[in-house]
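User: Fold this, then the next.

Assistant: Folding the first:
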Amino acid sequence: MRPIKILALGCLLLLMFAGCYRIPAPPGNLGQDWGEQKTFDYHGVKINYYEAGQGRPILLLHGFGACAYTWRFIGPPLADQHRVFTIDLKGYGLSDKPDDGKYAVSDQADMVAEFIRTQDLHDLVLMGHSMGGGVALMTYLKVREENPGRINRLVLIDSAGYPQKMPWFIRLPRIPVVNAIGARVLSPRFLAALVLRKCYYNKDKITDEMIDTYAYYGNLPGAREAVMETAKQIVPENIEAVTDRYKTVSVPVLIIWGAEDQVVPLKVGRNFKRDIPDSELAIIPRCGHIPPEEEAGETNRLIITFLKQ
C-alpha cells in the first residue's frame, strides 16, 4: 500500500473512532501467579521478568506490542520440569520505556544476551514468538560467538525474520501525524481488540480479559512511543546479511506456525525450514498468528515433544 493510502486509512480510522475514552483499569493480576516477579538492571534500564521452576532453563520472548502475558498458557506446564524465564522486552509490559531510540531487534538481542550472561545460563532453550523470534535468532548468533554452549535449542513461533509486507498495526505507527493524533483520540481498548482480531483465526477465543490486559499495558507511560520506535526499526538495515546467517545455525530448531497467520505468512515459516539446517516445521491448522494463546494445548504438546527428543 502506498504511503498516501496508508495515511488515508489512518485518518479514516481516526475520524470513525475519535472521541473521549476511558483509561483502561489495571488487570486483576499484573504479574504471573505462577512465577516470581524480578527485575534485571540493563545499563540503568529496569527489565521486568518472571522466573519459575527448576531444571534446564527456558527463556521466552514475546512479540511486537505484547509482553510476558503472552506466555500465560505456555509457562506453567514448562515450569513443571524446567526453570522458565519470561521477559518483558525493553519498552514493553512493566519494563522501563526510555526515550533513547534503541528499539531495533539488535538492541533487544543485546539486552537478552546480557540477561543470559548475568544469569549464567547454559544448555538454554531460547523461544520467541513473532518479533521475539527475530530477537531469539539474533541473540543466538550473538551469544554463540562468545560461548557456543549457552544456547543449544531454539523454538520459533510465527517468527519474524525475512522481508515481508508489514501488517497495518506496524505500518501506521511509522506515520508521525497518524500516530500523534491516534494517541489522543483512539481508545486503547479499541486498538487492542482490532489488533487481536487481525492476529486470531478464531475470533470467538478473544476475551474481554485479554483485550483489557493488552490495552492496559499498551497505555502505560512511554508504551506508545516504544511501539512507534520499534515499528520504525523493526526491519534490520542489513536484513539480507542476517538471513544469510540462518544457514549457519547449528542447534536443533522447532518452527511452529499457525496455518492461517495473516501477520507473518506461512511462507516465512517455510523459508526458515529451508534455510536452517537442523529444523522441523509444525503447522497448526485453523490457527492465526498467536498459537501460544489461540492453540496453547497443541503448542505445548509440540514444544514438550521437541524438548524430550
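Now the next one, as you asked:
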Amino acid sequence: MIKVTHYYREARDTGVSIEGIFKTVKKDLEGAAEIKESYCDGKLSRFKNTLHAARYASDINHITGDVNFLAMGLCRKKTILTIHDFGYYENPVHGTLKHFIYHLFWFYFPLKCVDMVTVVSGFTREKLIRYFDFPKNKIRVIPDPVKPVFRYEQKVTISDNPVILMLGTGKHKNLDNLIEAARNTNFHLDIVGWPAEDELAKLKEYSISHTIYNNLSDEQIQERYAACDVLFMASLYEGFGMPIIEGQAVGRPVVTSKIGAMKEVGEGSAVLVDPLVPKEIKNAITAIVSDRTYYDELVEKGRKNAAKYDHEVIAEQYLNVYRELQQRDS
C-alpha cells in the first residue's frame, strides 16, 4: 500500500477549507493509501517547521496548501504541492520588499523542490505558468471535492421574500455589489461571515432584510444552503469557488461571475454575471425566482455539474497522482 504524508498548516478547530478537503480525501482512500498527517507547529518559526518536515516524510509527501515553504525541507523526497490560488500573491497592497520575500520563499524556492504541483482549476494553472514558468507537464488540475455532507434537498416552494445566500465576506467576495443589487427589492440576504462596518451601514441605510451567521459547521452550512432560494457567488476573485458546486449539489441555482475560475466551474450550469454591475446581479436573481421552470432547469444543470466534483471521484484523481509519482525513479 502506498504511504503518503499530508502536510498542513498549524492545527485549527475547523473542518472547512484545506483541512476539510484533504480529510475527505484521506477517508475516501482508506485501503488504497496509508495517509498520515503532519501539522506545522504554531509555536515554531517557519524556518524550524521547514527543518522538521523531513521527520514525517513517507513514500509520497503532499503539501496541502498555505505552507508551501515546507517543500524546502523535503527537497530530496517525492513531493507534491497543492496551490489553491494566487490571491495573496497578486494583492497590490503589499510593499515591494514583502512581495519579493513572499515570491522567493512561498513560490520560487519551493517550486524548485517539488516533483509535481496540483492546482484546483485551469485558471490557477495558467497563473502558475505565467508567473513562474513552471513546466506544464508537472502540473495536474484536480478540483476541490464536494464533501458528502452537502446533499440534495428539494426546494418545494420559492420564498415570498427570496433568500439569497452568500458565504464569505472579504471585500473580494463582493457583498458591496450584492447589497446594491438588493436595494429596493424584497430579497432577504443570508450572509455567512463578518461584514465590514460600511457594508453593515448600507444594509441598514437601504433597509435590506438580512441575517448574519458565522462560525458555522459543515452541517450548519448545509442547512443554510437548503434554506436559501439562490446562492450568490459572484466574487471579484476566486482560485476555485467551492460554494458554487456545494450549492449545486444541494439543489440551489447559482449566480456567479463570468470571470476566472468561477466561469470555469459554473459555465453552462450557473447564471454568469459581471460582478461589478449590480443591475446584472439583480436581474439574474429576479429572473431565477420569478420563473419556476427556469429555476428547476438551473437546479438540474447544477446537479449534473456538481456530480463531476464528487468526493470519491476527486480522491481517485489524487490516488492516481500518488501512484504516478511513486512509480518514477528516485
